[in-house]
From TrEMBL:
Residues 27-362 form the Malectin-like domain. The chain crosses the membrane at residues 546-567. It is found in: Membrane. The lineage of its organism: Eukaryota, Viridiplantae, Streptophyta, Embryophyta, Tracheophyta. This is Malectin-like domain-containing protein. Residues 600-610 have a biased composition (Basic residues). Keywords: Membrane, Signal, Transmembrane, Transmembrane helix.
Amino acid sequence: MLKFHFLLFFFAFKIAFCLPAPYVTRISCGAQNDVRSSPTNTLWHKDFGYTGGIRTKANRPSYITPPLDTLRYFPLSEGPDNCYNIDKVPHGHYSVRIYFGLVKEPSFDNEPLFDVSVEGTLVYSLPSGWSNHDDEQAFVETLVFLENGTTSLCFHSTGHGDPAILAIEIQEVDEKAYYSGPGFGRGTIFRTSKRLSCGDQNPKFDVDYDGDRWGGDRFWSSIMTFGQNSDKPISTKSTIKSASVAPNFYPQALYQTALVSTDNDPDLTHTIDVDPNKNYSVWLHFAEIDPSVTDVGQRVIDISINGNIVYRDIDIVRITGGVNSALVLNTTIPVSGRILTITLHPTTGTHAIISAIEIFEVIPVESKTLPEEVKALQSLKLALGLPLRFGWNGDPCFPQHPWSGVDCQFDNSSNKWVIDGLDLDNQGLRGFLPDDVSQLRHLQSINLSGNNIHGPIPSALGTITSLEKLDLSYNSFNGSIPKSLGELTSLLTLNLNGNLLSGKIPAALGGRLLHRASFNFTDNAGLCGIPGLPTCGPHLTVGAKIGIGLGACVTVVVIATCITCWWKRRQNILRAKRMAVRDAPYAKKRTHLNHIQMTRHHHNGHHHEHTRTAVENGPPLLV
């Protein structure tokens, strides 16, 4: 029995303490080494391999921003759109926070204005004057579900300074954090608009590090009064219990202060500035910490937003089951103006009470571009050597900042954006056209004219059945025209003029000229086969052409060898003749002398010895 209890304790301990901790990564932008920040000794990872841009020294615009010394900024020369792409982020619900910075150089615009997108959805546009506020304007915070294993955080230039990023935090939170009803999370992003800690003299920041590990860390502005009221702040050191209706990841410190209305004005009213024509999720936090309220029915309030009652007869003690227990209420409302007014009116008792307020802008998630088409465009970017000024980062069809030279169309069947046009003429491109271009299967128009693109025309282009216009004129394409282009039945315009193409034009393309198609093959010295171009010779296969080439080479070598042998033989003959001509007088005289000596031998025998000696010693000089 003792062993059984020990095993139960062991497994309970393992479950309680060995569960994986929430994923978190913090990046100190521009840092070349990991750093830690005070007072929490928080680890910030070095900035390596996430993006482009330039590292430099940083100025902190607010005490809220982490005490870090570097940032990364993105000059317009590197493109209007730049992104941090962070891989290996587990599927889940995340708090994503981006801190803005100021470049520590007097020559820079000290307050850049730019747009921020998370996962292809615009979440924030920096307002003028953001660097002069010690509040949420120093950073942007979103709650978002990440499902693809990566996080894409992009910064889009608006022509008012270079985007500068001080730090990035990505922290996993509870799946049900800020649950707002059916359809929660997957189709929306929450952007923090305002957090108010009521009755507290100081803002609360980093207090959440001591709270539930799934809660994240949050910034709470302090508020001592609602509007112009002389409200009464109260506080307690009692332990706050979380009611069943309240998420368990809020810090206790949040509920240990509150505002209570006064006798002169029993209502609590607060007005908050918001952007017009948007939806806002409002979260109201309560805990009955007022010592004067001890039982059910002693304080009942109605809650209205912008004049409309959204909650009636709220009795905190009754709902939570007692005092010092947390209650969180949530509602989502559309706001057409620039003001959001929250009013708490006591219907029983003489005072209203509230602990904290959170307001989130509800942002519909933008549809993304088909992943395979994004991948194809990235391949095209590398193969063509696209200049940095194009950018081509993030989502190609991001509505507010689409990629330059890319046309998009929404595909209702897939609920995704697709690429239906490429317009990159006269851009100084010097690479080649990759086969991956065929993955852009919704293309209707391609215009790459006036560049210096080389290599063959990919036969894979013939698989883009929707293609109506293909303009590759005035480049350096070589080789033959792929037969597959003749299978593009929708093709109406084909401009291949001004290249280095050769061979016979495919018969299918030649036949299309009779069906009101506009094709241009001029200024290609090697093309043939249609009226206006040279007549093609017998058609030879590639193997036959190689054989002819090798045969011609062998013939040239044999002829050269024969000529060389003939020339050497002729030189030898000529050399022999010259020697014979030179030696002819000597040979004649020698013959004549021998004749005389032999005659003397016959008639004068006693001179025999002398004659022999003369013959052996050569002829004497003749006078």
